[in-house]
Amino acid sequence: MISELSIENIALIDKLELQLKSGLNILSGETGAGKSIIIDSLNFVLGERADKSLIRYGTDYAAVQAVFEDYMTPAVGEYFDEMGISEDDVLIIRRKMSVDGKNECRINGRAVNLSVLRGLTALLVDIHGQHEHQSLLNPKNHIWLLDSMGGEKLIAARYDNALAFDNYRSILLELNELGDKKVRERRLDILAFQIGDISEADVKEGEEEELLAGRRRIRNMEKILTALETAKSTLEGYEGTGVSAALKNASANLGSIVDFDEELPDIQERLLSCKAEIQDICDTLSEKVDQLGFDARSADKLEERLEIVRSILRKYGGTYEAVQKFYQEINDEFDMLSNADEAVEKLEKELKKASDELKNKAEKLTKLRRDTAKEFEKAMLKELADLGMNGSTFEVNIESAKDVYNIDRHGADTVEFLISPNVGEPLKPLAKIISGGEMSRFMLALKNIVAKIDGIGTMVFDEIDTGISGNISAVVSEKMCNISRNRQVIAVTHMPSLAAMADNHYLIAKSTENGKTLTHITLLDDDTDELARLIGGDSYSQYAIPHAKEMRAWADRYKASLQK
To answer: What residues does 491 pair with on adjacent strands?
Structure first.
């Protein structure tokens, strides 16, 4: 339930904190005092479309924060898990909008987008009024409502259907992976070609890089040969002019004078070492020149091999590692499909059994739903009669799929609530009811029945008394009181009989302070004067006060009767 609503810079509200309680919370006040602003603020924080006109004149932002207590339900817990939201003792939802168009939503301090906020608040609050925020108007929710009304037996049947569906789908997916015999044969041909293609190519790890390096070498052959031969001729020379010959001559010259200087033998030895190193370099260069001559002859073969390697990589993954992984996968698939006939025969038998089981479970679920629908229709007609809609017709329309392929985890059924508010009128979808009074009474009747089962902890009624008067107003008030025994109800009303039922009555009023009009809200300890105003105002004060006290006594007696 909502324990606190904080509003800042919304229309006539500067700053306002509303402490809400369990039971029936009534908001009343003069027309124009700001009751709709409270509902607009609540709609805003719950995720309705932001209207910048709500921002208080002279300020640059508006913000609303709602604090929830005792909010956790299985549906909320599942949503938290899905969205990665942490559970806490209280749930704090805050939304802010600025004049520049920026919109900020937070759940327990964590920034979220608007769709995540709406998804959560739809599980927490149901608003019926000028700004619709109603789970019950969405036909997709009708099947869940109906199943909840069926109790544990129907819920168990839905669970059994889901298990049967999961088993059927699992077997069907296995069969689909195998395909029919002709499809398997075509697939085996493709796999055999791919396996042969990769095997024949026999691409080695790093081979593409080696081939590319070889190609670069070949494409620069002339440059490389010229450089190698020039280097070799420089070292070897011609007719004794090379480095090697010069070193030999230098060593011979020193040899002729070694007897005259004791350091010269070492120098001569070093020259001979240099000559040997130079000769080794020359031999290596000669080998490279010979190798390049071989590379030149094999250039065509290298290009052909490079094209094969690149083709394999391109077709089967892009990298050596990807090709190897793909090769293993297609070999596994080839082995599996080669022995698939026996597996298919076994799976087809299992699928037939699973299909029959799923149909059986779906039929049982449908029967329970139809039985539950009859009881629900009777209950709705009774509630509508109590609310002065004796001529109404209400029907739970259930359409069931005949083909197993159209059965899902929820069964074979599509469910939608239909109503005809008046004798002689055709049944229409719930969302197409036009009359405000009829809509108010129908929704109240429906909510009175499902109050204990739809899991939403707070219900808000914005002027539910639209189009309601006379004796029906007392019945409506009792129905609203009934709903509030199982959840928090917040209601904006002008109807004195409903206000008399309040567990907590809040008076909304406006005043002028420092040239500004402001809205205030007060929790009334004694709401007799406000009830009297709703009954007739100052013109009938001598009658209104006693009437208000009598109405309060009537409401207290009714609430006391509910506790017995």
So the answer is: 26, 461
